[in-house]
Amino acid sequence: MLVATTDSLIERGLKAAEYRIFEQNKIWARYASEKPDVAISLMRAIRQLHSRMPVDRKLTALAIGAGDEPQFRILQAAFQRGLWLYDIDGAALAKIKERLDRQSIDTVSLVQGDFCRDFENEAVAEQTLELILGGRKLDLVTLHHCLYYCAAQEWPGLIKAIYESVLAPQGAMHLVMMSARERRPGTTTWLYNHFAGMFFGSNSDQDLLQLRTTLLDDPAMKGCKIDAETREVEFWVDDFEAFMSVIWMILLYPHGQDYSLEQRIEITEFVIEHYWRPGRPLIQTQDYVTVHKPAFATIRDPFRGYY
Predict the structure, then answer these.
(1) pTM over 0.85
(2) Which residues contact 81 (CB under 8 A, 6 or more apart)?
């Protein structure tokens, strides 16, 4: 069996940096234990949501940053009144459209857009609901690994806008993010902080658990219940190019941090030495937050456009 040289591995690692986001995420979804773990938490949120609703009423959902994720299958089955898959990446949505056409699924709508813009405040979110999302408030809104592309200081306003203007009475929001509090070497958080800190002088401040604390202290969120949990998953694939594609996704290249060619080479060499040749999997600690909205939480005509 031929052993790949360092130069050939670097070449493949640089090639992996050219993968589209949905291609990177597809590799992550296939080889990491993360997606089944998300499904466990998501199903818990859906189960609680269904327990608060009449058994014969069909529900609606919006998946922001949906991509081409396997959670689509869960959401499509559980939200038969309507499911909106919202993503900025048209290529990811095109993959789902092919499946919808092939399987004759007519309860799912695809929306391409920038969620940071389309839900930036209550007025804009209300307009997005009316013009794009059918005008009826939604029972579930998910934000899975998409808040990386929105500054942490903007999160409370974004979440409150969705909560007030998009989420139905007794609805729920389900959020997932890589934990910003993880410090162990070898984890995805450490990897991002190491290279973002080295080359750009920055570290991740995108703390989902801090967002929970901020929301609980906000009078506008009075009465809501916000659950949180932290879990650990891992990723390994026996193909260096595929492995590196996920490394670039974790490092937010090029959409978050635009590493130079020299920096990309240094990162690839580091991964070869510390992960690939030792056969060391990536470990990711991630936070889950679920916001449960009581029926009385929305003050401004909560049932308008709902039933």
Answers:
(1) yes
(2) 57, 58, 59, 60, 107
